[in-house]
């Protein structure tokens, strides 16, 4: 079985939007990691839904349904304990511009042992993770 890969919002947005600056790289990453199981949080799915609600609502709905229904994907749900851990990280790094959803991802990735992810956000690098390369 292939190693699971964590998915960030920015990767999905770049994959869907051909005008996004990272689109070509996202397509290459999608090809490379096509058969890998994927992991995201429901907070990431909320960001995807919000970001695509006006321009690509059907695509957003399909992406979220695929994440929720596919046997090859795992959605980690936001619990009160997970929120508290992410919020503590958010508060504890006032010198960073990390978003709260990114902090949720950081906590989940550390707990699940992820080092590499599908993303273009340098905040993950600041937090000690590695962005996947095509």
From TrEMBL:
InterPro entries: PIN-like_dom_sf (IPR029060), PIN_dom (IPR002716), VapC20-like (IPR039018)
Pfam families, A to Z: PIN
Chain ranges of the PIN domain: 5-129
Superkingdom, taxonomy of origin: Bacteria
Listed GO biological process terms: rRNA catabolic process
A GO MF term: RNA endonuclease activity
Name of the featured protein: Twitching motility protein PilT
Organism annotation: Candidatus Thiodictyon syntrophicum
Classification of source organism: Bacteria, Pseudomonadati, Pseudomonadota, Gammaproteobacteria, Chromatiales
